[in-house]
Amino acid sequence: MKKHHKWIIGSFSTLVIAFMIISSISLITIFSTQEMNNKRLTLELGDINSKINTLATNTLNNNEELNSLGMQLGTIDEEFDLLQASAGEDFSGIIENSVKSVVTIRTNVGQGTGFIISDQGYIITNAHVLADSQGMLATIIQAINYEQEIISATFIGYNGELDLALLKIPGNYEPLILENSDNIQIGEKVIAIGNPLGLQFSVSQGIVSATNRPGINQQNIYIQTDAALNPGNSGGPLINTEGKVIGINNFKVNDGDNIGFALESNYIFQAVNEISQQTFNQTLIN
C-alpha cells in the first residue's frame, strides 16, 4: 500500500472515531437533558396535582360553607318574617279572623261581651255580665254575632270565684283558641275586643304590663294590660299577635288610665272543663 493511501485511510478512521465520540457525547447530553426534563415535569405534575387536590378540597369546603350560609340565610329570612309579623302595627288580619268568634251578650239587666270557645257554640263570658247590681240573674240572654244576628243563649253554668259563666247557642262556629298563659311575655302586644259603652266589636291595642296580678278574689291569676277596657268589655277576649286568647277581660282600676285586668287563659280552660264536667259529665275543650 502506498504512503498516501495509508494517510487517507488513517484520516478517515480518525474522522469516524471523532464522529462516534461526538455522537456519543451528543446522545448522552440529549438523554441527560431529557431525564432532567422528565424529572422536572414529574415534579411539576406532582405540584399541579397537589394544587388540584387543594383546589378541590377548598371548592368542597366553599360549597359546604355556601350551603351552610344558604341554610342560615333561610333561617334568618324566616325569623325576620316572623319578627315583622310580631312587631307589625297592623292587627287587621288577626282582628278579621278573631272578631267573627266574638259576640255581644245582651240581657234584660245589662250587656257585655263573650267569645266562642267550642265549634258546638259554647260561649264564655263574665258571670257578672248576667246579673244586675243586686245579684239577680238575667231571665233573658241573647248573643249578637258579627253578622248582627240575635240568637237566644242557654245558661249552662258558672264559676263564681273566677267570675266566669258558660253559655250555649245553636249551630256550628269557628272557636277562638286558648293560649297557654305560662307563655305570656311582659311587653308583648295584645288586642282587646269588646263592646265598650255599647259600641259593638270595638278593638283596643296595648301590651301586657304584668302577669300574676291579684284580683278581687285575691288570687294572683290576672294579666295587667294597658289596652283600653271600659264597661261592656267584660267577658271579651284579650288576644296575642298569633290570634290566640291569653285572657278574658274582667275589670279595670277606675282611678287609673288604661289599667285593666284579664283572667289568665289557663284558668279559663280549667273553669270551663269543670263546669262542663259538672253539667254533662264531659270535657268541653282540650
Structure commentary:
The chain starts with a helix and ends in a 6-residue tail after the last helix. By secondary structure, it is of the alpha+beta class. It has helices at 3-87, 92-98, 265-280; strands spanning 102-107, 111-116, 122-126, 141-144, 150-152, 154-159, 164-168, 189-194, 202-214, 220-225, 237-240, 245-252, 260-264. The protein has three helices and 13 strands; from the N terminus they run ααβββββββββββββα. It has two domains: 1-87; 93-280, Thrombin, subunit H (Beta Barrel), CATH 2.40.10. The strands form two sheets. It has a seven-stranded antiparallel sheet, with helices on one face. 38% of the residues lie in helices and 27% in strands. The longest helix is centred in the first third of the chain and has 85 residues, at 3-87.
Average pLDDT value? 78
Number of distinct helices = 3
Q: Fill in the CATH topology of the largest domain.
A: Thrombin, subunit H
Radius of gyration: 45 Å
Main sheet: strand order: 5-4-1-2-3-7-6
The count of strands amounts to 13
Strand content: 25-35%
Q: List the uncertain runs.
A: 2-9, 41-77, 79-88
Second CATH tier, the architecture of the largest domain = Beta Barrel
Q: How many angstroms separate the termini?
A: 134 Å
Question: What does the main sheet amount to?
Answer: 7 strands, antiparallel
The CATH class name of the largest domain reads: Mainly Beta
Give the H and E element order.
HHEEEEEEEEEEEEEH
* Category by helix and strand content: alpha+beta
Percent helix = 25-40%
- The oligomeric state of the chains shown is single chain
Please state the overall shape, judged from the principal axes of the Cα atoms: globular
Number of domains: 2
